[in-house]
Amino acid sequence: MEGSRFLAALAVSSVLALVFSMASAYDPSPLQDFCVAMNDPKNAVFVNGKFCKNPNLTVADDFSFSGLNIPGNTENRVGSNVTLLNVDRIPGLNTLGISLARLDFAPNGGLNPPHIHPRATEILVVVEGTLYVGFVTSNPNRLITKVLYPGDVFVFPIGLIHFQFNVGKTNAVAFAGLSSQNPGVITIANAVFGSNPSINSDVLVKAFQLDKNVVNYLQKLF
To answer: Which cysteines form disulfides (predicted)?
Structure first.
């Protein structure tokens, strides 16, 4: 009996250890004040996919960026622009597990298409205009949406498909914080129909229940 209890306790402990290890599977907590990313490996330490500058050589510019007040160019097919400040734009973000983005939307339908961030939760605040935003839960696929106005905030959980759409007649601007120094982005339509090399069209025909000519057209479009 005691042996059974011991094995049960051991099993529970193992499950809990697995759960907690999975729950912490995000950007690792830094073990130093900062690790300014650099491309030159000479006299540097390799951390989180980047080399770290000697802390004694860091300067204020390693932790700053200017120009986020400048609107992004929305004259494109979807009518939006994302200016992402990740570790590639601000080297001092390396190992700190956070990044920032400015989102600009053209009037009457500017769209940040359905996409995911594989490594980050996103929190968005609207500062100008009116945005219809939403995300889709994992199975069952339930759509959660809301119309946002200046000052409104919305959260998109990590790894879930989400979008922002300008339903107003004026430009819209929002800022987003992301819980990774390099959140990544997979735009669904681009990834499915514009991958390189292309996904076999027979796969897409069956997956989306589309005519093959439509699939071929979409693959050429993207």
So the answer is: 35-52
